[in-house]
Amino acid sequence: MVDVNNSRPILASIHLDALRSNLVRIKTATALAGDAKVWAVVKANAYGHGVRHIFEGLRAADGFACLDLTEAEALRRMGWRGPILLLEGAFNARDLEVCSRLQLWHVIHCEAQIDWLAAHKTNEPQRVFLKLNSGMNRLGFKPAQYRAAYARLAILSQVAEVSHLTHYSDADSNDAQGAAFVARQWDVFQRATQDLDGECSLGNSAATLRTAQRSGDWVRAGVALYGAAPDYPVKTCTDWGLQPAMTLSSSVVSVQDLAVGDSVGYGSTFVADRPMRIGTVACGYADGYPRSAGNASGGAPVLVDGQRTHTLGRISMDMLAVDLTHLLSSGFGSRVTLWGRADASRADSTVLSIDEVAAAAGTISYELMCAVAPRVPFVVME
Fold first, then answer.
1. 43 is catalytic
2. Which residues in the chain come in under a pLDDT of 50?
């Protein structure tokens, strides 16, 4: 399935087999700590992959977690009848009408949301997850206010069940300070929820893979489902047994020969110190490829015909340059993998991790996934 017709060779391929494999990997981690249920997190349009593109690959999840009602509507239209959780809850009182219509579960993180729920007219009580601010300091009730908020919700006729939720700030950290903060948040959560009925959800991808025993009854798997390591560079996606769910690919559309002293691209930031052969690739920052990758020492990694090379000079709006000097058989029309599989149709082909590209650009894989531009065609690989 291809979204649009486009003769330009850039393409984002979504791998359903990788999504299924990554979900199994998450479930394996939870099984080691008591078989927690798995939310497949599909906020930000499934981390840039497209909710409708990934649905078949993740429908074996126990539920889907999203940010807004548009994503929830899409899941219901595709036939999902299981739980859907709104991770930040209602943004206004009217959202609760949609929650009733679509039978959504939703997070409660402030008094205003309890007020809206208390005034909401519904014949079907709703499942809510009360959020504890255990140290992240973004959303949620402080520990001193948590039990009072729980008591308010527990007596509302609009509420069917109250569950508990928090979010680790340092689950992806590999130092002693990060581990201590996870332990502290776990302790704060245990004390705040002691003797209160309801299921618990604490773990994101990092916590699920690294400390599943501190993740609760529901884990919220996000970036790991899409094949990136939540704690890169401490561990890679290969270390965790994850596969890339997206391949961003294009082709070489021009070949240039450089003499010593020739420069490449805007600002002449790269100057050849030897005779070189370079390729121009149909991909640029308007496609979502990071412009900052052009500042990487030694260039950002790419695959050309499955072989490693790197970018040269600045990334342009629609193009970037790669070194072909050592790739004697590559040239005009050669396949270029910006991240993902060298051959999108084969799960066993060489992989360029999106984490590695993100690191070269001074960012994280999450940002690259979410930044793929609307003009890039998508294809779902069965």
1. yes
2. 1-4
